[in-house]
Design brief:
Structural class: alpha/beta
Number of domains: 1
Distance between the termini: 17 Å
Strand order of the largest sheet: 2-1-4-3-5
Number of helices: 8
Number of strands: 5
Shape: globular
Largest sheet: 5 strands, parallel
Helix content: 25-40%
Mean pLDDT: 89
Order of helices and strands: EHEHEEHEHHHHH
Low-confidence stretches: 1-5, 220-230
């Protein structure tokens, strides 16, 4: 399997994918009443597969923080004192039935499972640990999930939006995630897996016109210098 991270090549400065598989033309930025703070482990920031980066591209009001284990953030740098802070975690309390999106700040811990576990130990007193009713299987095929009910950062956000009744925003994020995964698989040369993924994806219908153009086009390589991403 080809690596789109370790092999130097020209990349889009926004989605970090090679120009042939750039998805920026389909990017649809959204506004939601929730306040979002994405705590992205430093290993995530340069990865084309990162859904923390995807959240920031799609929700420009979200604040993405770099998480360095050697110099962890403080609550004053992240928490909005005007809102109730939640940290999403499977060991938290059930989501309150009377919660209001407009008065809530959600902290999303963005990293591999062991990295997020370390992050929650540092942040658990910054707000209220909340668990979501996660169902089904992860659609984040770019990385192996390490167990049941483990989902990518953006999938956790999608479940949260649905729980708040923000169905339209949740659906749009789901379509963007599916495109993100499909493009990542194509960029890795996993054509058969990508087509299998697309066959079971709602974006096959919802984004049909864009996909026809996306699969056919051959954009010119830009003059930007090659990037080596870690």
């Amino acid at each position: 399997m080809r690596s789109v991270v370790r092999k130097p090549c020209t990349r889009c400065n926004n989605c970090l994918l090679p120009p042939r598989w750039c998805v920026c033309a389909a990017q649809n930025q959204l506004e939601i009443p929730l306040s979002l703070a994405v705590l992205s482990h430093q290993r995530e920031l340069g990865k084309p597969s990162s859904t923390g980066n995807l959240i920031k591209r799609l929700l420009p009001a979200a604040v993405q923080h770099r998480w360095d284990p050697g110099a962890p953030l403080s609550p004053a740098q992240v928490v909005d004192p005007q809102r109730e802070a939640w940290i999403l975690h499977p060991q938290g309390d059930d989501m309150p039935s009377n919660a209001v999106a407009g008065t809530t700040q959600v902290l999303l811990l963005d990293g591999a499972w062991h990295e997020a576990s370390a992050m929650v130990r540092h942040t658990k007193d910054w707000g209220r640990l909340i668990k979501l009713p996660l169902q089904g299987e992860s659609r984040f095929w770019l990385r192996s999930q390490q167990g049941e009910a483990q989902f990518s950062t953006i999938e956790a956000l999608i479940f949260l939006l649905q729980a708040f009744g923000l169905q339209q925003a949740g659906t749009e994020l789901q379509h963007q995630l599916e495109l993100h995964v499909y493009a990542g698989l194509r960029a890795r040369g996993r054509i058969d897996v990508a087509e299998q993924y697309l066959d079971s994806s709602p974006m096959k219908t919802a984004m049909a016109a864009y996909l026809r153009e996306y699969q056919a086009r051959r954009p010119l390589v830009t003059s930007a210098p090659p990037q080596t991403l870690s």
